[in-house]
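Suppose a classmate hands you a notebook page containing two proteins, each written out with its sequence and a corresponding row of structure tokens. How would you begin to make sense of it? This section walks through that situation. The first entry is reproduced here exactly as it would appear on such a page.
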Amino acid sequence: MQLVSNGKHTETIPGKRYFTIGEVSNLCDVKAHVLRYWEQEFPMLSPVKRRGNRRYYQRHDVLLIRQIRSLLYEKGYTIEGARKKLSSKEASEDSNLSSQLVHQLVSELEDVLTVLKKD
């Protein structure tokens, strides 16, 4: 499991490979129709589509959606501004993303430590 900061609280992201649009909607506090719209507006957001055109998001997609949500809803960016921010080299250096990655690594290491202590 991973902890990812979402504004005022921390959400747990299950340790699985793929997430449905409903699961991502709950994890990111964004409605499904908004996620589908963001796919059109942000080219870097492209979940895997399988039978029946169902979307399956991966962990990096969830982190990207969290970052888009933060830029739009918390920092007040326009969609165009958020797109430019994410496509620039600054996006990888953004402190929010760095913080999320640190939380993710700490959580994974804690999970490994728990498993090792059980043996």
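The notebook's second entry, a different protein, reads as follows.
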Amino acid sequence: MPRLNTPFKIKNSEIKNRILRSATVESKTDFDGFVTDDLLELYYHLAVGGSGILITGAAAVEPAGKGFAQQICVFDDKYLPGLKKLADIVHEYGSGCKCAVQIFHQGTAGYGQAYGASERGYSLIDIRQEDIISTVKAFGQAARRVKDAGFDAVAVHGAHGYLLNQFLCSATNNRVDKWGGSLENRMRFSLEVYSAIRDQVGDEFPVFWKINTSDYIEGGNEIEQYARVAGTLAKMGVDLIELSGGVEKQVKLRARLSKEAGEHEAYFYWAVDAMKEAVSGTKTALAVTGGIRSLPAMEGLLKKGVDFIGLCRPLICEPALPNRMLNSPDKRQSKCTSCNKCFFHIARQPLKCREFDPFRSVLAGGAK
């Protein structure tokens, strides 16, 4: 049996296989951030497609933190009924599939906009202490809503130039108080967010974290800094760390990283050993996302010590890829050609593969 089919336990939740659907903004809510039938249909297809765990697209924890016009929102209890329907869809049709909501804050305008997100006036240098504390609390309350809605975990977006990454990144954090300067100070916001989440969801609810391996910008952090961050989060109790990278111009960056990865496929293959060492001695699982297309590459990553394989674009064009690879004779690599046309549109149009359209309507009725 392929290693990909091996279950993995996180806290009291057993993940049926090692395929993790990595988050991407779906742009399928209404303009107020409420769950719609289109979003439920997407997660129906993903759930029946065979992934072990699904992570939703970024969900805004504050109105000012919203970066996309039609993204999930979790900053008010009024969103709970729709979120509960989403969790129920996955659990009803996913044959043991688990689901997490990724919580997010856009942060400062000018960063994290690789996919055309709208600009927001959130200045890292000018933000007041009380507003920082308020945003920290907002992450905690958002995580509580994720748990109350019936999801299996909460995932924090700490990468790609958004707010948590902006605090961490030496090139974007120019504060001179306790929130800036040394790496320990720049980590403070992330650690406070984690503590606020734990205060709201307790110790037994799984918490995932997406983190960069390198910022790939001048003056940004490299693997040495992010390994220290990962190690600190792991010791505090983060249950899974998902490895990614980059702050801006993600489409161009991914094309470059694909060439550098070669037969390994995974953009961040080179960072696995350092991150594995950083979390050694803890119970924190590791996932790696980016560029992975074939079964041999996935199995190679698991042999290297990765616990989960993160897939995003392959599941946009082929949501049933896990079932095909794991449970059928057809072991061909993903149909995804990494054309990135999906990413050029997601900020302002519903998520869709521009080369293949696998979806057919299966749901009816109101979702809000």
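A careful reader of the second entry would note: Residues 110-122, 360-368 have pLDDT under 50 and may be disordered.
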